[in-house]
Amino acid sequence: MYGQIFKEQPFDFTKHSTIGCGGVAKQAFYPKNEEETRFLLDKQPNGWVAVGNMSNVLPSDDGTDKTVICTKKLTEIQPSEDTVYVSAGVTSGALLRFMRDEGYGGAEFLAGIPCTVGGILYMNGGAGGKYIAELVDRVRIVRGGEILNLPANECEYFYKNSVFMRTNDFILGGNLRLKKAKKEDIEKSIKSWLDKRAHLPKGKSMGCVFKNPAGYSAGELIEKTGLKGLRIGGAKVSELHANFILNDKNATAREITSLIAIIKNAVYAQYGILLEEEIRYLK
Ligand SMILES: Cc1cc2nc3c(=O)[nH]c(=O)nc-3n(C[C@H](O)[C@H](O)[C@H](O)COP(=O)(O)OP(=O)(O)OC[C@H]3O[C@@H](n4cnc5c(N)ncnc54)[C@H](O)[C@@H]3O)c2cc1C
């Protein structure tokens, strides 16, 4: 049986996204378990879009006709013999607390990434050369109304890319290969990952806007074209890290998109390299 499913009407992207812009979706649902999720996915005449913490999405100023399915109430963490099942809505902070309290290591590089596990499994996110794909044993999804456990080798993981970008799968969670470790070591490792991020810009952003082209740093290429600090309306290229666009004065998605186009043109004109967005457009 289904309990009452929490619904938000409308769902305002400016309040929910880390970049703080965009229009609204007419409605969002927050399923608490797999049955509720599967039920909801099947019932949306205009389609659906899954969101976690909305930290890597640029929502359109026009909002969306789709129903938002937010994973934040899917919060199960279940250790088994050789893996730990982590539901899509578990945040990096909650997973790291579990790891520290229960003595599991391996995913400390997630410290400071403002993600949910569903979002990072979709994006194949990571830090310092480590990516979530390295820990994935299988990903549990809803595909065409069926629940499947997709083995890692079918997730088509490569740099900031996954099969989920090319399918319409809803990620319910993933089995991660975390290893038993000493609590002090885990704590130390989390702290050192957090220290490495201390220089990153603060404020409303989506993190890195562009992927690093093979052999280059997107941030360095943008910096060398002299675009640090460039502003359009309320959006500007961070002075600290040129791969970050900040919304510091009620920027619209259109202003951010214009800035993205200027950056791509300038880097292409100077280096012949076409930058590819890491962020996902939500419309
Ligand atoms: C300050 C800052 C620092 C950051 N640093 C890093 C970093 O170091 N490394 C890094 O990799 N990223 C970084 N990011 C980007 C971002 O945090 C990651 O990409 C993260 O994985 C996104 O997770 P999310 O839960 O916010 O996903 P969302 O932004 O909500 O979603 C991202 C995409 O995944 C899809 N999606 C989300 N959940 C599901 C689901 N359950 N099923 C199907 N599709 C789903 C969405 O539709 C969307 O297309 C940073 C962002 C910010 C704002």
Structural account:
The protein is an alpha+beta fold and 283 residues long. It folds into three domains: 6-70, Uridine Diphospho-n-acetylenolpyruvylglucosamine Reductase, domain 2 (2-Layer Sandwich); 77-196, Uridine Diphospho-n-acetylenolpyruvylglucosamine Reductase, domain 3 (2-Layer Sandwich), CATH 3.30.465; 218-278, UDP-N-acetylenolpyruvoylglucosamine reductase, C-terminal domain (Uridine Diphospho-n-acetylenolpyruvylglucosamine Reductase, domain 1), CATH 3.90.78. Helices cover 25% and strands 24% of the residues. It contains seven helices and 20 strands. Helix 3 (92-102) runs antiparallel to helix 5 (183-196). It is globular. The mean pLDDT is 97. The chain binds flavin-adenine dinucleotide. Flavin-adenine dinucleotide binds next to strand 5, helix 4, strand 11 and strand 15.
